[in-house]
UniProtKB/TrEMBL annotation:
It catalyses: uridine(65) in tRNA = pseudouridine(65) in tRNA. Keywords: Isomerase, tRNA processing. Residues 11-147 form the Pseudouridine synthase RsuA/RluA-like domain. This is tRNA pseudouridine synthase C.
Length: 215
């Protein structure tokens, strides 16, 4: 289910499929990305950030508690550059930044949050955007695009059910149209910039092709 993009001494980077929760503490699932990675590489792993269950793409796990602390600080301090591809309803502006407070976790207080976006394709009633969240809040890209009236296709929480069903039935888009395409940072122990990328998975690539999305 998972493909490994990098396996070093301190951390491992994987390409997570949609439908798989990251950590057992964030779901009731018996199998999670953490279990899959642990079993694949044969050692304990430590989650340092999260992707929604429905989101696919680049995901990092640390391999020891000290490395986990370092990565958690990097994510918390905004020293990790994250880019997502999101197919959204309507034609967005060419680019923009959304500043709108949202919770860190379910039921928590709203805190400052910022996401930049750039439109990379437009259809008659759709846009594909490259979204770059500058903070790590709950459902940040999904909430922020909804806030500017461009909810994600396939989003059961913040989108439109009738529209989601239409794209599922017509184009086979049966998941959230959100993919963590790349993640970059300065290597904490080597001091060099490093970026990891995950190709668009088939369960997005094929529906996008039917819709006419050009990347």
């Amino acid at each position: 289910m998972l493909s490994i993009l990098h396996h070093g001494e301190r951390f491992v980077v994987v390409d997570k499929p949609s439908g798989l929760a990251v950590h057992p503490g964030w779901s009731d699932d018996e199998r999670t990305a953490m279990h899959e990675v642990r079993d694949s590489i044969g050692q304990k792993v430590f989650p340092v950030h999260r992707l929604d269950r429905a989101t696919s793409g680049v995901l990092v796990f640390a391999l020891d508690p000290e490395s986990a602390r370092v990565f958690c600080e990097m994510f918390e301090e905004g020293r990790v550059e994250k880019h997502y591809l999101a197919l959204v309803r309507g034609v967005t502006p060419e680019a923009g930044t959304i500043d709108h407070p949202i919770p860190r976790r379910e039921g928590g207080p709203r805190v400052p949050a910022s996401t930049s976006f750039r439109r990379v394709w437009r259809g008659e009633h759709l846009s594909l955007v490259d979204a770059e969240p500058h903070s790590g809040r709950l459902h940040q890209v999904r909430r922020h695009m909804k806030h500017i009236s461009h909810p994600l296709i396939g989003d059961a929480n913040y989108g439109k059910g009738a529209l989601n069903r239409e794209y599922r039935d017509r184009f086979g888009l049966a998941r959230l149209a959100l993919h963590a395409r790349s993640l970059g940072f300065v290597h904490p122990w080597e001091g060099r910039p490093i970026t990891f990328e995950a190709a668009l998975p088939e369960d997005l690539r094929a529906p996008f092709e039917r819709i006419g999305v050009v990347i």
